[in-house]
Amino acid sequence: MGLDFGNKTIGVALGTIAIGVASPMLTISRTKLLQDIKKLQDIIKEENIKGIVLGYPLEMDGTQGDRCSKTKDFAHRLMRESAMNILLFDERYSTVAVERVLIQAGDISRNKRSKQVDQHAAAFILQGVMNGY
């Protein structure tokens, strides 16, 4: 499972190693940390998830900022609550790349695009790991 953790939402994507393709699943509107984790635990159970790739928001120069600390805190709490291994993956270009692709698709309005970008970013992150980057 790939996750794009943000202040307001969590993008979720699924993929399988055998097929080698990550697909966007949904965007969770964040509420409280434990409620967010419960939603993810439900997905983990329903989809028989074996591992999680979490986008790690390094700054453009490669340094760790405030968002990295928040992401690490979230990762530690999710690992503790779900007993899942979590891999942090550099996500610096995921949202920009996804927005570019969605714009090129042409049929998606700005409003729909903003609702889908996080789950597509999660798929981009997961696909990066599956491709060995």
Number of helices: 4
Order of helices and strands: EEEHEHEHH
Low-pLDDT sequence parts: none
Q: Helix amount, in percent?
A: 40-55%
Q: Characterize the biggest β-sheet.
A: 5 strands, mixed
Given the helix and strand composition, which structural class is it? alpha/beta
- Multimerization state: single chain
Report mean pLDDT, rounded to a whole number. 88
Radius of gyration: 14 Å
User: Overall 3D geometry?
Assistant: globular
Number-wise, the strands total 5
User: Distance between termini?
Assistant: 16 Å
Question: What is the spatial order of strands in the main beta sheet?
Answer: 3-2-1-4-5
Fraction of residues in β-strands: 15-25%
Task: Give me a quick take on this structure.
The protein is 49% helix and 23% strand. The chain is of the alpha/beta class. The two termini are 16 Å apart.
Q: Please, could you describe this protein's structure?
A:
By secondary structure, the chain is an alpha/beta fold. Helix content is 49%, strand content 23%.
